[in-house]
Design brief:
globular, two-stranded antiparallel sheet, 8 helices, alpha/beta, 25% strand
Length: 245
Amino acid sequence: MKNIVIAAGYATRLGELTKNFPKPLLKIGKSTILGRMLDDIDKIDDIDEHIIITNHRFAGIFEKWRSEQHYSKPITVVDDGTETNETRLGAVCDLLFAMDKLNIDDDMLVVAADNLLFFSFREFVDFAKEKETSCIMCHEQPSVEKLQRTGVIVVDEQMKVLEMAEKPQEPKTHWAVPPFYIYLKKDLGLVRQSVKNGCGKDAPGNLAHYMVEHTIMHAWKMSGGRFDIGSLDTYYEAVERYGNE
């Protein structure tokens, strides 16, 4: 299984802090946002490589960071060639770009690199192996306002995903979908054809939505919380709350 980290955005909401520096490599205590995530994923036996998809502006920074790491699994940095927020490929196209460039033909754990997580991805991987389907994560979100800004799913008693809506004005459930996914090798053909068949390009949730409509998927309920770093305020809050852990 490949661990594919989507990190090609420009984090414009963090202003000068990320104008010339990638958000995933911002410090949280002695580590970084990305480092904290990889510390967990690297310990999963199924994972055999970490693939970081970034843009041309930040590729050199990621390469320098890569040269200083000592994870048990190799790290590959993929440069998507873009240099501005206006010319970005979008998360789905970045994933397809890396798949084609590296000829990926394996199960994939696909993650966004701007969250602090308080559970192990090992549980998610084990869940996908048990279900033998591609999978997404979910968590209960009581706030309708927040549900209107994310993906929302309907599931059955076995957590099979029956439908998914992106940013619904009238959410059918309180199951929100964070940006963490497992796409099995048997579904990679669907992934590769997704954009050609009308899948949205920008948010990683667009692909999950498309896949729910074209194959069987299950949803794993997160066993712990997460902290989404999407603005300057939330970054400084993360440093204050978790920087000493």
